[in-house]
């Protein structure tokens, strides 16, 4: 068993009460036998609380808030109590696939058939499987795969019914559990080992997630169904789903998921770097609803709540609900775990934990510090630039990075990563993936000197003055220059 994650400075009393009240409302109104909530701040478990009870003997109640009140023969769960996390499993499988991509063993544009003989998948690419745009059916061949053993689907082809494809690949978002079963099989094919063994070796162990596993390990909660009209319970089965396991098999704890949330926000070079995780968090397809409150990246769900973009995933399996929502901008994440098939809105609880933490104790910005090194030519490159008459500001960032932003609030800004060849690549916004070049005039002097330097950004020209007469503006500049109106 892993040691509890070290906590940062504790929340203030008012914050603690607000967080505890939120999970208490979620557990009571959702009629969940138990609900555990946690908040991650700046990469550390900051707060954990629980309501309700579980009957397993190993749960400890001393390390969480909210364990008081009437209990009937059970114990309050804690940050080390396992719950089944359902489709949060998909994010772990996506991390394994992106590791394969980063190692050059596959490309996201590869059709799955290049690596696996699964004709049922049609021409779907690996990226389409990750983003649920493959067109594959939502569920596996019956009976209800979440409640039946994997022996009923011994081979990959056995997970498909009569109509595996429901939509043309790449045309629309259509959530597919079989799609992630195929991605798990892809990991096994390219690694030569079961997907869960690969996961343990490549992700769980480096991140210190020793309490995350494909099958439950004590202390763990039991899964329950709650009668819709009476306060009575029915136990739910917890089976090994076999080939479908990559779609929702894992069990985990609040403490382990806190470590995982920190990884999803900041990256870990032992597993995946921040650049790849940012790629996974980018929307892969536009949402179909008009409100644009949700989306999907590469194995990562996206949500817009309370003016912030959250990344993570929700999950459900018979007897369990789970949610992890993180706000990289705030350095905050909320986790909610319940042992009920339906009822508690754990996704809303997790999002509200982020909101409460941010509103009660807004993040304190890191102290400003000067750059540790700065090329004088790059310093000379900073300052105002003009795209035609539109003013922009260019700033120097760490590691020779640049940031271009409109000065009047109108225009397209982006951050840029320095490349070895002396160019920069856009990281976000309109210019994501585009190349920024500094073009020197005939004088060949330093950036920003008198040698008519300009910026070429995806063929757009930025000059030091609005429409410089002797600049390299396509189409030329009227030799009479600027003039008063008629």
TrEMBL record:
Top-rank lineage group of the source organism: Bacteria
Q: Which residues form a coiled coil?
A: none
What keywords are assigned to this protein?
Hydrolase
Give an example GO molecular function.
hydrolase activity
Q: What is the lineage of its organism?
A: Bacteria, Bacillati, Actinomycetota, Actinomycetes, Kitasatosporales
The EC category is: hydrolase
Identify the stretch(es) annotated as Disordered: 58-78
Concerning InterPro entries, the annotation shows: AmpC-like, Beta-lactam-related, Beta-lactam/transpept-like, DUF7586
Recorded protein name is: Serine hydrolase domain-containing protein
Residues forming the DUF7586 domain are 375-464
Q: Which Pfam families match?
A: Beta-lactamase, DUF7586
């Amino acid at each position: 068993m892993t040691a509890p994650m070290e906590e940062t400075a504790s929340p203030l009393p008012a914050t603690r009460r607000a967080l505890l009240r939120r999970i208490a409302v979620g557990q009571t109104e959702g009629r969940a036998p138990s609900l555990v909530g946690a908040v991650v701040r700046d990469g550390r478990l900051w707060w954990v609380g629980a309501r309700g009870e579980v009957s397993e003997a190993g749960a400890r109640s001393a390390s969480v808030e909210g364990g008081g009140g009437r209990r009937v023969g059970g114990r309050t769960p804690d940050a080390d109590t396992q719950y089944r996390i359902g489709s949060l499993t998909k994010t772990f499988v996506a991390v394994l696939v992106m590791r394969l991509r980063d190692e050059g063993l596959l490309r996201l544009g590869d059709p799955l058939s290049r690596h696996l003989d699964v004709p049922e998948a049609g021409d779907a690419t690996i990226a389409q499987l990750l983003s649920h745009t493959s067109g594959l059916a939502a569920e596996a061949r019956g009976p209800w795969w979440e409640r039946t053993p994997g022996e009923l689907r011994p081979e990959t082809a056995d997970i498909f019914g009569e109509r595996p494809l429901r939509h043309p690949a790449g045309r629309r978002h259509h959530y597919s559990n079989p799609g992630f079963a195929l991605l798990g099989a892809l990991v096994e094919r390219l690694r030569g080992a079961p997907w869960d063994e690969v996961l343990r070796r490549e992700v769980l162990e480096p991140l210190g997630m020793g309490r995350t596993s494909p099958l439950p390990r004590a202390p763990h909660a039991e899964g329950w169904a709650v009668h819709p009209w009476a306060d009575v319970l029915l136990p739910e089965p917890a089976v090994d789903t076999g080939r479908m396991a990559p779609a929702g098999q894992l069990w985990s704890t609040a403490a382990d998921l806190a470590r995982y949330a920190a990884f999803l926000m900041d990256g870990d070079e032992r597993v995946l770097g921040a650049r790849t995780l940012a790629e996974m968090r980018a929307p892969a397809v536009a949402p179909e609803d008009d409100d644009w409150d949700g989306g999907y990246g590469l194995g990562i769900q996206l949500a817009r709540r309370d003016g912030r973009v959250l990344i993570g995933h929700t999950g459900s399996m018979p007897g369990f609900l789970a949610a992890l929502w993180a706000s990289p901008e705030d350095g905050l994440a909320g986790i909610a775990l319940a042992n009920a098939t339906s009822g508690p809105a754990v996704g809303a609880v997790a999002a509200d934990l982020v909101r409460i933490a941010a509103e009660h104790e807004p993040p304190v910005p890191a102290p400003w510090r000067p750059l540790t090194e700065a090329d004088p030519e790059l310093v000379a490159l900073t300052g105002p630039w003009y795209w035609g008459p539109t003013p922009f500001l260019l700033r120097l960032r760490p590691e020779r990075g640049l940031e271009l932003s409109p000065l009047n609030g109108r225009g397209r800004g982006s951050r840029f990563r320095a490349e070895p060849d002396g160019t920069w690549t856009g990281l976000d916004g309109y210019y994501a993936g585009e190349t920024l070049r500094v073009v020197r005039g005939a004088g060949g002097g330093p950036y920003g000197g008198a040698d008519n330097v300009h910026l070429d950004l995806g063929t757009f020209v930025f000059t030091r003055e609005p429409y410089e007469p002797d600049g390299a503006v396509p189409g030329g500049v009227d030799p009479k220059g600027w003039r008063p109106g008629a």
